[in-house]
Amino acid sequence: MINIYQPQLAKIISIKQESLDTKLFRFKFLDKKISHAFAFLPGQFVMLGLPGWGEAAISICSSPQETNNYFELAIRDVGSLTHRFHSLKVGETTTVRGPFGNGFDLDKFNGKNLLLIGGGCGFVPLRPIIVDYLKGKIKANNLQIFYGCLNEETILFRDEQAAWNRNSEFTVILDKPYKKWLGEKGMVTDLIIKRKINPETIVVMVGPPVMYKFVLKELKNKKIKDENIYLSLERKMYCGLGICQHCAIGPYYVCKDGPVFSWAQIKDIPEVI
Q1: Which ranges in the chain are annotated with CATH 3.40.50.80?
Q2: Is residue 73's pLDDT more than 80?
Q3: What value does the mean pLDDT take over residues 15-41?
């Protein structure tokens, strides 16, 4: 078992520019025992750190099936620490603690219709679910994926989307596309309104908090049950252990009890969305 209080060293083995401000980093633990012991569920996160700079909570975006070989983090350049991460090169090392939090219970998806809704960089934690569905590790009846972005420069995982299209109903919609964009235009809620969605569908959504209010309204119009809606919350997380209390919402700590919650679990907490 990994000691989640103790940072472990992980080496960067590849870096890929995914969008204008986001890079996909592939890591491997230096200690082989740690690498073999590392296990996570989609939706969980690690605390990625650099000595002298601090730590940041980053969602894991690779398949849990690949943890013996590597794990991947998509890091957006939004502050001093993430900007420092973006300056790192292949072969350099970082510290990693975790995994932390409550992930998605993949067994609940088996035998169900599954809808993934992602907004902007919030799409990152959904990638492991898609990868495992394509590998047959998730036995959902079918998969719909609605991905909303601002424009072409913010789209993530472009190289993988052809495979997603072949095996699911995958749609990207852009809020402010350039003139040459031939795909859907508008907000991700427009896809929910226009598409046929089975009322018994399991819905997983990850995105900015402002998105949830409007998405939830349209999901209720489609008769989706509260207990079948799962979402990941964004809060400032400094410890990952429920000690610093920065991420408290109602009776929960997002870092420990979340970040994944069912809507039935948190819908009566005023500060959620």
Answers
A1: 106-232
A2: yes
A3: 95
Can you tell me the mean pLDDT for 247-268? 89
Q: Strand 260-262's sheet: what is its strand order?
A: 184-185, 169-174, 142-149, 113-119, 202-206, 229-232, 260-262
> Taking 70 as the threshold, does the pLDDT of residue 1 lie above it?
no
CB 100 within 8 A of CB 241: yes
pLDDT in tens, 109-127: 999 999 999 999 889 999 9
Q: Which fold has domain 106-232?
A: Rossmann fold (3.40.50)
CATH 2.40.30.10 in the chain is located at 8-100
| CATH code for the part of the protein at 8-100 | 2.40.30.10
